[in-house]
From TrEMBL:
It comes from the Bacteria. The keyword rRNA-binding does not apply. This is ATP-binding cassette domain-containing protein. Keywords: ATP-binding, Cell inner membrane, Cell membrane, Membrane, Nucleotide-binding, Transport. Residues 132-199 form the Oligopeptide/dipeptide ABC transporter C-terminal domain. The keyword Ribonucleoprotein does not apply. Belongs to the ABC transporter superfamily. Its main location: membrane.
């Protein structure tokens, strides 16, 4: 049962009562965890089996099990995938509280750049397995150095601005190459609007203070005469 799996994931080292009260204490902790991740009907869920739950409920239970031990490092790979917007916000706020109150480092992995920029303090952008840029979130938004980061930011719809009817979102030409046919050098090269001959070579990591990027022809850089 789901309840038994969740109870077993809760460590007993924080319990200070009598040994025969340990199971009851762990059950209370399990119920509290389910409430934290947005599950109100804990009785039904704890008596169910995984195949009887929806994908969203399974996702919430997995998150509850992950945070049960109050880890120092939590790797969250698409933690809000397939969840409704209200639950997504609830889960992200929970992770944020863990980061602030428990000093838990959160490695948040995702494809929704709007969500990442809202919750992360530092962002690393990857393309086809290559890290192309890494910096504090505000630096990424204000002055992206890599063309792929720039393209991602421009592709984010701005709902505060008027957009002509049926206007296409900005995007890079072409499509992501298959893993067995990756381009040599910079993997964005065939799709990059700024690509030149030098891009067939793998770019070295460059750094401006705490801002790292891998590009032969970076954007938003001031050249001193």
């Amino acid at each position: 049962e789901v309840g038994r799996q969740l109870i077993e994931s809760i460590p007993s080292r924080a319990f200070e009562g009598k040994w025969w009260e340990r199971f009851k204490w762990r059950k209370k902790q399990a119920i509290a965890l389910l409430h934290k991740v947005g599950i109100k009907d804990h009785k039904r869920l704890m008596g169910s089996y995984p195949y009887e739950l929806t994908d969203g409920e399974c996702q919430k239970v997995m998150i509850a099990m992950a945070i049960a031990t109050k880890p120092k490092l939590l790797i969250a790979d698409e933690p809000t995938n397939d969840l409704d917007p209200i639950t997504q916000s609830q889960i992200l706020r929970l992770l944020s509280r863990m980061n602030q109150l428990n000093n838990t480092t959160i490695l948040l992995i995702g494809h929704d750049l709007a969500t990442i920029t809202q919750w992360a303090s530092r962002i690393t952008v990857m393309y086809c397995g290559q890290s192309v840029e890494s910096a504090d979130t505000d630096k990424i938004i204000e002055a992206p150095k890599h063309p792929y980061t720039d393209a991602l930011l421009k592709a984010m719809p701005d709902f505060n601005d008027w957009v002509p009817h049926k206007q296409k979102l900005q995007s890079l030409p072409g499509s992501i190459p298959p893993l067995q046919h990756l381009p040599i050098g910079c993997r964005l090269g065939p799709r990059c609007p700024y690509a030149q001959k030098q891009c067939v070579e793998i770019p070295h990591t460059r750094r401006i203070k705490n801002h790292k990027f891998n590009c032969h022809f970076p954007l938003n850089t001031e050249k001193k005469s």
